C-alpha cells in the first residue's frame, strides 16, 4: 500500500527569489557574515547565491547526514566528514541550509561550528517548517503544513524514489498510470515528457524495465 505524502516541486526561480528575500532579512538585521557555511547537500546552491547577495567571498561546506531518502531520516543527524575549521575563530559565521524540517541538521551543525570559537554564529534557511525543533535566526518562508519540497537539485533523486514507492503497489504500469499515481498519492502534477525522461534514467540505473503487453508500453520493477 502506497503511503501518501504531500510533495511540491520548486523551480530555480523559486530558489533564487527565496534566497534573495532571505538576504534582505539578514541585511535588515545588520548581520554581516565573514564566512558562509553551506550544509551539504541542500544548502550548497542557496549558500553560493547568498555569497553573491551579501558580497561574501569566504564559502565553505559541511556535510551533514540526516535524510537518507525522500521523506525518511536517520534517528540523529551527524557530521559525516568532521574537518578542522580553526580559521573560523573570531569570525561572524552564517550557517545556511535549504530548509529546516526536524531541525536536527542545523542543531548539530551549529554545535560543531561553535567548537572553533567564531565571534558569532547565525543560522538561516530558505524555508522553515513550524514543527521543526530548531528555529533558524533567519528564514524566507514559513511553512505551516508539512510538505516534502522537491528542489531543482534533486528532481531526479526524489521523483525516482516516489515512482519506486508507487510501483510497489502493482506489477505493471503505463506512463499515464504513473503520472496519475504521483498526483493521487504525492500531490504532484508531472509532465509526461519529463516523466518519460525520469523512467529512462531509472531504466539506465536498472531500477525499472520497459515491457510491451499486447502492443502497449508498460513499466515494471527491474
UniProtKB/TrEMBL annotation:
Natural source organism: Thermoproteota archaeon
Protein name: Phosphoribosyltransferase
Pfam families for the chain: Pribosyltran (PF00156)
GO molecular function terms attached to this record: glycosyltransferase activity
Ranges of residues in domain Phosphoribosyltransferase: 18-150
Keywords: Glycosyltransferase, Transferase
Gene3D superfamilies per the UniProt record, alphabetical: 3.40.50.2020
InterPro entries associated with the record: PRTase-like, PRTase_dom
Signal peptide: none
